[in-house]
Structure formats: structure tokens, C-alpha cells
Amino acid sequence: MTTLQAAVMVALAALATQITRWTPFLLFRRKTPKFILYLGTVLPPAIWGMLVVYCFRNGTLTGAGSGVPEVLAAAATVLLQLWKRNMALTIAGGTLCYMLLVQLVFPH
Question: Where do the domains of the chain lie?
Fold first, then answer.
């Protein structure tokens, strides 16, 4: 890939990102429809639920890859969020907990 091709790809990605950011403001200048407001309240918990299912989809309770590090890291993540209510700390702490568990406590 040439430098020009890379620059064009970056520019197109930036343009696409900006279009997706501006479109809702352009479409809903006056009043946001009730359906969009409803989706704004129900979609975040639904996405979190899908992420939890995705993260635990291959886990087993017996044998190799028992899922213990995943469950412990998920519990630590929930506890951090309930304790500090800081999303950055929660994500970093849960990730750190999981990585320490799989690298040091439960290596494959």
C-alpha cells in the first residue's frame, strides 16, 4: 500500500466517522422522535447483555478453560463499578484482573 492510498483510506474513514456523528443532529434538529428516545433508553442495557453473553459463550464449568478467570474478573468488574461508579476504572480494573488471572494464576 502506497502512502497516498493509506492517506486516502484514513481520510475516508475520518469522513465516514464525521458523517455518522453529524447525521442525527441534522435529522432531528427540532424535536427527537419518541421512538428514538425510547431506543436510547433500552439499547444500552441490551448491548451490555449481548456483550456478557458473547464473553461467556465458550465457557465450560469443567475441564481446561473452566471459566474461573472469566467469572472472577466479571465479579471484580461488577464490584468495582458498584463501589466507584467510574467506567474507566471499572474497565481497566476488570481487564487487569482478568489478565493477571490468566497469566499468573490460571495459565494454560
Answer: 1-29
